[in-house]
Amino acid sequence: MNTVICGINGAMGKVLEQEASTYDDVKIIGSLSPRNGKCGQDINGKIDVIIDFSNTSNLDFLLEYATKNNCALLICTTGYSDEQKNKIVDAGKNIPVLLSSNTSVGINVFRKILKSVSAELNGFDIDIVERHHNKKKDAPSGTAKTLAEDIMKATGRDNIETHALRAGTIPGEHVVIFSGVDEILEIKHTAFSRKIFARGAYDTALKLYSMPAGYYTMEDFF
Questions:
Q1: Selecting from 3.40.50.300, 3.100.10.10, 3.30.360.10, 3.40.50.700, what CATH number does the domain 105-191 have?
Q2: Does residue 189 carry a catalytic annotation?
């Protein structure tokens, strides 16, 4: 799989670059950094997939570039507006594209568990507590928003309270707390390394790039 990374100089980009060597079927053939003028002019060969861990401001360029090169696009950047999300969905008319707030296997199984138990505990107070490193800009995290959306769909609620902490070098932690009368249930996922997100991205990209044009979600692969 010929891979191009957008955001290769960022924290996640560096991990993606390192983890690529652990895959026999992944080859990085270039990188993109639109804000720095690196717009693919030096990339040779057929691109199978672009993996993006960069900035929301790069979206229009990425959608145009991926469509022009007829390649899959896996977007792992968070913080998009509804208008931007609609653009991503619309791009699925021409290329396989997937927007993921979290590519780890654990979180995506976590989501399935939440959907199952939330309706059973609809009489409980439900809160999400998420903790990340102090360099993370968006709060609450994209993952926390996704978890909240899952719970709201399962329970019919209009809102789920989310509490965010930014401190130190915490890669990521999400806790969903169900508080009832005289009992509490907590479901928790902790990321100890960014490697889980990089490997999850590659595992997802390996499936995505062979798919027909369309807008996909992580649920389509779990």
A1: 3.30.360.10
A2: no
